[in-house]
Specification:
Helix content: over 70%
Shape: globular
Number of strands: 0
Oligomer: single chain
Distance between the termini: 33 Å
Length: about 500
């Protein structure tokens, strides 16, 4: 089998890497589509934005999103700088290993994989419930949510097995449609003056700390999860050195602008004084009700139907992200080697995609056997855990940026190598503190909150401990781990 390689853009493969065999057709636009589809604009508008109002207990949702944009853009300075230094599509774990060593890198890889799997399962549950509601409303048929979840899972499995550009095209179509629907509703609300005219209350910082701002911040950051996937698609980008940084900044800016504008429009549409109360009483129908009130019943129908395609696009995108995480970990010899194989025809990590499908089926069946509610338990708990995990990963990455550049590139300008990572670490640390402090309010009980926090910590510890034991007992094997995480100078990352 002949490796596909463009001499202008291909990167040298490290030991055991097979990235040169992957399709390299993703440009900035395709990656931005993939990433924004992963955050599901319409799904977030319908399912997440009302929760920001409801759980925070105030109308300051636009400020939470703007704050998230500032923190994530500062984080992206060090993140994209590392994407130029480390030639691996593992993103978080490869950057942490470059700065903090293999043991920390392995722990980060384990935490990232668990976090993304949890999010994927939670999204599958949301997709099934959303589809069941539409089938019941428009066809008059009562179908169990899990039946539709498994039907969608088959479609995701087929698309995930093939060339990444097939998924990118599907996601692009879904994204354009849902973004147009959200924009039309926003403009209609503002054009008609909302419930009681324009108000500066949603943008007033004095209200941002009313109620429980930790939960508002948590779900504001949750709405951005997926933006970091720009680096995960590095091995399939046309020119990763330029494509990844551009795609990252564009994705964060577009996502943040859309959410801040839409959350302001929702507050005006409901009335700033009642935004939290109305959203809390019926969060799942806030946007649908606004669509009917300000545009018409046809728009409400469009929202309900496109909500399914929005969540489906999100599921497909995260399926691809998890498959590529496993692919890179296999090439780093942290996972079985067969996960690192590339399909000769589709030039995609098809075997890894199959494993993601199988694991999704197993976990979903387990959730069914345990009798967990698909929304209040599976989706809420898993998405909350994933958000906490990803923010912790970003904080670790900020630390590794500083350590890596102080050790190897001390001449790098201070803004990118020290100041921006320190500022992002402060911001992310504050968000982590607020989330942990209020996590029991999200999941309902202290016991459940403790169990989730312990499980996330354990996922990091297990990866780190197994690697440490390997170093002590099998130094030859340890020397091979994560050798595919090489810097631009061609040397392995920090040992």
């Amino acid at each position: 089998m002949t490796a596909y390689s463009d001499p202008q853009t291909a990167e040298p493969a490290g030991p055991g890497e097979k990235t040169a065999l992957l399709h390299r057709g993703l440009g900035v636009g395709s990656i931005v589509f993939m990433v924004i589809a992963a955050v599901a604009p319409l799904g977030a508008a319908c399912a997440v934005l009302p929760l920001v109002f409801a759980l925070s207990g105030n109308a300051a949702a636009p400020l939470y999103f703007l704050g998230a944009v500032v923190v994530l853009c500062i984080f992206a300075v060090g993140f994209t700088l590392m994407s130029r230094r480390v030639q691996n599509a593992g993103a978080f774990y490869s950057y942490v290993q470059a700065g903090l060593g293999k043991i920390s890198g392995a722990g980060t890889a384990s935490l990232a994989l668990v976090s993304y799997y949890l999010l994927l399962i939670g999204l599958y549950a949301l997709l099934g419930v959303s589809a069941a509601a539409v089938v019941d409303q428009y066809l008059g048929l009562t179908v169990d949510w899990w039946v539709l979840t498994f039907a969608f899972l088959i479609v995701v499995a087929l698309l995930g097995y093939r060339d990444i550009e097939v998924s990118a095209k599907v996601l692009g179509v879904a994204l354009v449609l849902e973004a147009l629907v959200v924009l039309v509703i926003d403009i209609a609300i503002l054009a008609q003056g909302g419930a009681s005219g324009f108000s500066a209350q949603p943008l007033d910082p004095s209200h941002a700390f009313d109620g429980t701002p930790g939960l508002g911040l948590m779900f504001a950051f949750f709405a951005f999860i997926g933006f970091e996937a720009t680096a995960v698609f590095r091995s399939e980008a046309t020119n990763p050195t330029r494509t990844i940084p551009r795609a990252t900044y564009i994705a964060v800016a577009l996502i943040g602008t859309m959410y801040a504008f839409t959350s302001y429009s929702i507050a005006i549409g409901i009335g700033a004084d009642g935004a939290a109360a109305v959203s809390g009483s019926d969060p799942s129908n806030v946007v649908q009700n606004l669509a009917t009130q300000y545009v018409g019943t046809a728009m409400e129908d469009a929202v309900r139907i496109l909500l399914i395609t929005s969540v489906f696009a999100c599921v497909l995108s995260f399926h691809n992200v998890v498959a590529r995480y496993q692919f890179n970990l296999a090439n780093g010899k942290l996972l079985p080697g067969f996960l690192g194989e590339v399909h000769p025809k589709h030039r995609a990590p098809s075997r890894s995609s199959v494993v993601v499908t199988v694991m999704s089926v197993v976990v979903l069946v387990l959730m069914l056997l345990l009798g967990l509610d698909p929304i209040t338990e599976v989706y809420t708990w898993f998405s909350g855990a994933a958000t906490l995990g990803v923010i912790a990963l970003m904080a670790l990455t900020s630390i590794s940026v500083i350590a890596f550049h102080r050790r190897y590139h001390a001449d790098t300008p201070l803004w990118g190598s020290v100041l921006a990572p320190v500022l992002s670490l402060i911001g992310l640390g504050f968000v982590l503190y607020m989330i942990v402090r209020n996590f029991d309010l999200l999941v309902g009980t202290n016991a459940a909150a403790t169990a989730i926090l312990v499980a996330l910590a354990a996922s990091f510890v297990i990866g780190a401990v197994v690697t440490a034991v390997t170093r002590a007992r099998r130094p030859d094997r340890y020397a091979e781990l994560l050798e595919n995480c090489r810097t631009t100078e061609g040397r392995p990352s920090q040992d």
